[in-house]
Amino acid sequence: MSRIGDIPGRLYRGEISLRIVHRQKMWYGISGLILLVSVVALLTRGLNFSVEFTGGSIFQFPAAAAAAAATQSRIASIVQSAGGGQAIVQHVHSGLQNQWHVQTGVLNDAQSGRVQAALEHAFHLTQNQLVVQVTGPSWGGSVTNKALEALIIFLVVIVIYLSIAFEWRMAISAFIALLHDILIAVGVYALIGFPVSPDTVIGFLTILGYSLYDTVVVFDKVRENTAALLTTQKSTYSDAANLALNQTLVRSINTSLTALLPVAAILFIGGGLLGAGTLNDLSLVLFVGMLSGTYSSLFIATPVLADLKEREPRYKELAAKVARRAAGGRAAQRAAGEAGSADAGSGTDAVPDPEGGLDDAQMTTVSGGPSEPAGRPVRDGTRPVSRQQPRRGGGTRKKRR
97-104 and 88-94: which strand pairing? Predict the structure, then answer.
């Protein structure tokens, strides 16, 4: 456990490193595949806008009051016969909710009254049991326009702020990450068919702010690590950005998990068990957006920023210098390794006798040990050697050890 607890500190100090920025092609490929699925779902299935956007009427009544006589086909037939047109009939049965939900197009007061009377007569409902909600098309169009205006204003303000606070390349990278999150969230709604309501738009703007917050935290660390990069010339911009990602990785994961746990509780318990529609509208977009926002701030925004910065001539030159320095270091290591291998391969060295020839007493052992006697060192080593020297009168005498 202590080793696991040391991981954040070792990541921050650079003792261990996850190569995130250097594997940007893999992250781009994963995001490209997800975005492709999202775009295909959006083009083929489209978004299921709620009645607040499209306009129309909603009739709701308890399933228990209608008893077994109510079915989807019968309710749709009654509404059509009363002049309500094609209706979307849903049996909402989740948690404490058990009711029929009938959505029609835009109806005038007379048409809405006839449909209401037909449902009350067919299923013996009281006026208190049948709830009618009418939304005009002008109100739905106003909501749509305001939502688009809010999104555009948000993106423009964010780009301007990041360009002033950081630089335009960071602003472009953050903007790309935000578009990435928008397409993924929209694609999930198109794939699932979940209704898009005004509450969804509120949650959507919320997750954009969350994603941007995480991106700004990482960018601030990147700016700190690269402030004196051209002066020190110790690493490339990608290496410094990757170190910043590793230093903020654990923090980003902890923040995301802390935020996702209550949202997951709202989505699966509040929405699924209690059947609260507003909670579902908010929690699903928050859950999807927080996941994609965390992913994009770590694996999209910073790699895109590193790619943009590495295109600058000064950082290109820096990368070339770092590469040459690294290549020289590797060459020196290989040369040292080859020299060490050659020394290890020669087990003995011989000292020639002045009179010519060698005998066993004149062999010098190179691999010495603690018990090896000290003698005169050989020319290319530090090992002591022992040899016999000839006497003046002939023969040999042993050198005193």
Answer: antiparallel
